[in-house]
Each structure stands twice: as C-alpha cells, then as structure tokens.
Design brief:
The chain is of the alpha+beta class. Helix content is about 20%, strand content about 30%.
C-alpha cells in the first residue's frame, strides 16, 4: 500500500492530501529514509513523522484497505509519541 494512503486509512493523518504534502516536504521517513507519498509500506516498517518540534514514531502492524474508526489504532504501534525533541 502507498504511504500516503496508509497514513490516511490508519488515521495517523486525517486527510490523504495532507499526508501527501507531509511526504513531499520531507517530513516523513520509513526505516530512517525519507519517503515519497508513493513509497510502498509493509508490516514491520517504522514510520517517523516530524512536526515543528515534535516527532511521532510508529511501527506498522497491519495493512488493510479499509478499517472502521475504532479499529484504526490496531494498524500501528506508537514507539515515540508526539513529544518535544530534546
């Protein structure tokens, strides 16, 4: 599955266009490599999203084309929450 679609389906990022913009600006990496929106993700990949002074790091546990809102959090495991980098 494409990275931008995964971010939207898993509800890590609410809209696919926002996910695409984040990827294109170099703020999203997979396994410590900057990723494009079209990069394929697989189970076990580590996604890192950098916000202003904050970072979200998560491991992909499940890939599904559609999930209910309640089940979206089962698609990933948070490794590093959105915290200030120090």
């Amino acid at each position: 599955m494409r990275l931008d679609r995964y971010l939207k389906v898993s509800r890590i990022i609410k809209r696919r266009t926002v996910a695409k913009e984040a990827c294109e600006s170099g703020r999203v990496s997979i396994n410590e490599k900057v990723a494009k929106p079209s990069t394929d993700v697989i189970e076990g990949d580590i996604i890192e999203i950098r916000y202003a002074e904050k970072v979200l790091k998560a491991r992909i546990l499940n890939i599904s084309n559609y999930v209910h809102k309640e089940d979206a959090k089962q698609m990933y495991e948070i490794l590093l929450g959105v915290e200030d980098k120090e």
